């Protein structure tokens, strides 16, 4: 989630709901090599196909033609090495690659000198374009908010671990014939009936008191709401301790983007009395209108549960740390998780080589990405204003690219 700002913050997209689709997809089709796309597009690309196979694949330009710098390549190489164990062990939901396709690159990457990282990607990868290649990228970050391990005055917002009564099951009124896919999340009530789980309002009103482990207590319910949107973050205690928390689960209830609601109500914009269409603008409205702001947040019935993380970075859906300016969230139906991704956008700071190490509840479709910017105030500002458009290329091992080309003959 996973577990998403800028335009994503206008609709408050859930980067927290990190889910890996199960099963493999049919082999993709390959079209003729595509000419380079223009560096920007007017509007975000809307998903038009269910997976990379239906979107179509075109061979991209040679990697030597891309303006990839050594420093950019070196940071991407380091993240790629961290992803290799997962690439070699999991199925690619996009259908573009097989686990064995990655073996040569992963073997070479372990001992490859960082000073020649650009040559590594040029030697082991070929670029492909998925669909029309028109990219839209937002940004997410790791928030740091005030918190405490114990409840004390000023620190009273519980940060819950996953409750033991949160389970998957079928409501009694769902016919057997309609029970397809994964059972929904919920709980069993006192009468033994499977019902929906407690929503945000109920949890805020104390429905989980004494029923779920509390990892810590946040100081500010508004800041914690936005941390839930991000899906991970840090709690800094008055004593200076930093508690890193990551996405552990969700209550199964409906997600509502409150930014979209605010826009529909005319609360966001540049007119008189309107608030800026950014995370900061949304937060300003909620703080200046506490009762209406609380009701607005409660429209989002989704609640995120956390686990305490140990290590040097928040974990993406691959189970490896996501790194600032190296890790990007993508839709695994279109991009193999762990694969390098080249973004050429109208936002210079987001252009370059990234590694797809995460997913997001709102990061859906070909060429839709969410760039990670780390922690700190600058990360908050960059991610909060990120809305980049341009083109995207997915870098595949040469064996996979050759097989795709051959299948199109």
- The CATH superfamily of the largest domain appears as RlpA-like domain
Low-confidence stretches: 1-47
Instruction: Characterize the overall form.
Output: globular
Following the backbone from N to C, one meets helices and strands in this order, namely HEHEHHHEEEEEEEHEHEEHHHEEEEEHEH
Q: What is the β-strand count? A: 18
Nearest-integer average pLDDT:
86
Strand content: 15-25%
Roughly how many Å is the radius of gyration? 22 Å
Number of domain units: 2
Largest sheet: 6 strands, mixed, barrel
> CATH top level of the largest domain?
Mainly Beta
Helix content: 10-25%
Structure write-up:
By secondary structure, the chain is an alpha+beta fold. The protein folds into two domains: 7-140 and 324-407, Barwin-like endoglucanases (Beta Barrel); 142-308, Ribosomal Protein L25, Chain P (Beta Barrel). It has twelve helices and 18 strands. It has helices spanning 7-10, 52-55, 70-87, 103-111, 117-124, 200-204, 221-230, 258-264, 279-288, 290-298, 377-384, 398-407, and strands at residues 30-31, 57-59, 125-130, 134-142, 144-148, 157-160, 167-168, 185-188, 194-195, 214-218, 232-236, 242-250, 304-308, 327-329, 340-345, 352-358, 368-375, 388-397. The strands form three sheets. It has a six-stranded mixed barrel with strand order 4-17-14-16-15-18. Strands 6-10-5-11-12-13 form a six-stranded mixed sheet, with helices on one face. Strands 7-8-9 form a three-stranded antiparallel sheet, with no helix packed on it. A hairpin with a 5-residue loop joins strand 11 (232-236) and strand 12 (242-250). Helix 3 packs across helix 5 and helix 9 packs across helix 10 (290-298). The radius of gyration is 22 Å and the shape is globular. Mean pLDDT is 86; it is low at 1-47.
């Amino acid at each position: 989630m996973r577990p998403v700002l800028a335009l994503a913050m206008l609709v408050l997209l859930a980067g927290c709901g990190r889910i890996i689709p199960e099963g493999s997809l049919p082999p993709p089709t390959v079209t003729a090599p595509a000419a380079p796309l223009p560096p920007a597009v007017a509007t975000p690309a809307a998903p038009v196909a269910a997976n990379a196979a239906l979107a179509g694949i075109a061979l991209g330009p040679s990697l030597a033609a891309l303006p990839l710098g050594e420093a950019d390549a070196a940071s991407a190489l380091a993240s790629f090495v961290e992803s290799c164990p997962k690439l070699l062990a999991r199925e690619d939901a996009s259908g573009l690659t097989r686990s064995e396709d990655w073996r040569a690159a992963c073997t070479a990457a372990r001992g490859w000198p960082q000073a020649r990282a650009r040559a590594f990607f040029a030697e082991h990868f070929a670029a492909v374009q998925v669909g029309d290649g028109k990219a839209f990228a937002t940004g997410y970050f790791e928030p740091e908010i005030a918190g405490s391990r114990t409840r004390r005055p000023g620190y009273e917002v519980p940060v819950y671990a996953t409750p033991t009564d949160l389970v998957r099951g079928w409501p009694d009124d769902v016919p057997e014939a309609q029970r397809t896919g994964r059972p929904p999340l919920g709980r069993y009530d006192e009468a033994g009936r499977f019902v929906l789980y407690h929503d945000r309002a109920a949890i805020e009103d104390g429905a989980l008191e004494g029923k779920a482990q509390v990892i810590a207590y946040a100081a500010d319910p508004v800041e914690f709401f936005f941390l839930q949107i991000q899906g991970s973050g840090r709690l800094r205690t008055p004593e200076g301790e930093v508690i890193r928390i990551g996405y552990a689960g969700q209550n199964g209830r409906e997600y509502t983007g409150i930014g979209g609601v605010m826009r529909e109500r005319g609360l966001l914009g540049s007119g008189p009395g309107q608030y800026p269409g950014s995370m900061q603008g949304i937060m300003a409205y909620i703080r200046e209108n506490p009762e209406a702001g609380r009701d607005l947040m409660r429209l989002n019935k989704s609640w995120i549960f956390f686990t305490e993380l140990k290590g040097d970075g928040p974990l993406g859906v691959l189970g490896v740390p996501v790194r600032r300016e190296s890790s990007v969230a993508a839709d695994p139906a279109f991009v193999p998780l762990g694969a390098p991704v080249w973004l050429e956008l109208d936002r210079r700071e987001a252009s370059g080589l990234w590694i797809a190490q995460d997913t997001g509840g709102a990061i859906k479709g070909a060429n839709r990405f969410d760039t990670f910017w780390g922690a700190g105030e600058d990360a908050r500002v960059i991610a909060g204003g990120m809305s980049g458009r341009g083109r995207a290329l997915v870098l595949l091992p040469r064996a996979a690219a050759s097989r795709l080309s051959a299948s199109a003959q």
